[in-house]
Design a protein that fits this description.
Length: 406
């Protein structure tokens, strides 16, 4: 439920949002000054602002901000009760910007999914998902019921995850489990990138666009603190945050190095595996971050595709023979996904495309022939490029492609 105080606060946040102050940053800034607001009120205000951006193109812009927020909320409530009140044609025309139609073949289920509030996924430390879920409460363990995500086709991959879906309302950052490093907040689609990489203890890996270390932590956890993980980013500030997160998780097998993405690499080391979790237009995150639907553009997509290709080209020579290269982007545009991956394959005959989720890695060899391993006509264990659509996993959209050096 939203009340007039919530709409009032949300309207005040709306006027501060600009191209250089996106909705999530504007909310954070507003809450710094509005110290009297409690957790429940802040959640309601954030949800009201995000709901506004999900339904933006349905709203009567001649009305006041407060009226439009109320209108968006009413649409959200009607849609939540009965999604079929909004016709698929209306979703396709209004839920996402027009320019995306040339870039993304939006499944109608994805369009429905991105109009809902997003689930919160945690990654428990290896093998501790049940314990964590019992401690936090209000949680489902994905490996316990892998078909619980929207699409059972993925169940042979998700069955091997440490993912926990948290449905409660506590501030997880103040729990003892968070301070002990018992979990990370990490979307399920991002967790599947780590699962596709599947580094082994004792190997040498490079997370080239490590950012604040979300995926680096997952890789290091799978390596069980044995071997070396290089983590680089062009942002020194993000690397500093990464170091703090590694300390909290008591993982010590990381070596950080700044890297701006150019041909001048931070090391001459040859790697068993390299992850390029590249900067992207983020269209796969538009459920969680609906304001970005109205700020991203085709120009961004074109520019980012050039950067993505150049990152892949620059690191390809750092693989050992037999080493694996993992390309991931949380976007669904053709230009940044299949176009980048296919052109890279063509330009690098020394690399061969290999399955993103090989069955042995997922402990499901015997299931290879099972119809449950297929999405439509495709066998997900044979796919060398995988799209994870938001409705399939109740998570962000993601694209992953993988190669092996011959
Ligand atoms: C998708 S984010 C990485 C998220 C991170 N891997 C995680 O899981 O939390 C992409 C990262 O690439 C970095 N980046 C952006 N442009 C870059 C470039 N040209 N070269 C290297 N890194 C770049 C950004 O600083 C950002 O941290």
């Amino acid at each position: 439920m939203s009340d007039s105080a919530t709409f009032n606060n949300a309207a005040r946040v709306l006027v501060t949002i600009a191209s250089d102050l996106p909705a999530d940053a504007a909310l954070r800034k507003y809450f710094i000054h509005a110290r009297h607001l409690g957790g429940r009120e802040k959640r309601a205000i954030s949800q009201t602002v995000f709901t506004y951006f999900r339904w933006l193109q349905w709203l009567d812009t001649k009305q006041s901000a407060q009226k439009q927020l109320e209108q968006a909320w009413a649409l959200h409530e009607r849609f939540t009760k009965n999604p079929s009140v909004i016709k698929p044609e209306a979703l396709a025309a209004l839920a996402v910007p027009e320019w995306t139609r040339a870039e993304i073949d939006w499944p109608v289920d994805t369009l429905r999914q991105i109009q809902r509030n997003q689930s919160l996924w945690l990654r428990a430390r290896p093998g501790t998902a049940h314990k964590l879920a019992a401690q936090l409460g209000d949680s489902d363990v994905l490996s316990h019921n892998p078909a619980a995500v929207g699409n059972g086709h993925w169940s042979h991959v998700t069955a091997h995850s440490d993912a926990v879906r948290y449905r409660g309302h506590h501030d997880l950052f103040v729990t003892p489990q968070f301070h002990e490093g018992a979990f990370e907040i990490q979307d399920l689609a991002s967790q599947l990138v780590g699962q596709a990489a599947a580094p082994l203890p004792g190997q040498t890996w490079w997370d080239t666009c490590a950012g604040e270390g979300g995926k680096s932590l997952h890789l290091a956890d799978q390596m069980a603190n044995k071997g070396v993980l290089w983590a680089s980013d062009r942002s020194e500030r993000r690397i500093q945050t990464l170091k703090k997160r590694f300390a909290r998780a008591k993982l010590f097998n990381v070596r950080t190095a700044p890297w701006d993405g150019s041909a001048k690499l931070p090391t001459k080391t040859k790697f068993d595996g390299i992850l390029v979790d590249a900067p992207c237009s983020g269209t796969g995150t538009w459920q969680r971050n609906p304001h970005a639907r109205w700020t991203a553009s085709t120009k961004d997509v074109a520019e980012l595709a050039v950067i993505q290709r150049s990152l892949l080209d620059n690191v390809a020579g750092s693989l050992k023979p037999g080493g694996r290269l993992i390309y991931a982007v949380c976007t669904l545009t053709k230009s940044e996904t299949t176009a980048v991956a296919n052109a890279f394959t063509e330009a690098h005959p020394e690399l061969e495309p290999v399955p993103v989720f090989p069955p042995a890695q997922q402990g499901a060899t015997e299931k290879l022939a099972s119809p449950a391993c297929t999405v439509g006509e495709t066998n997900i264990f044979a796919e060398t490029q995988a799209f994870l659509w938001p409705h399939q996993l109740d998570a962000n959209g993601m694209f992953i492609a993988t190669w092996r050096k011959k």
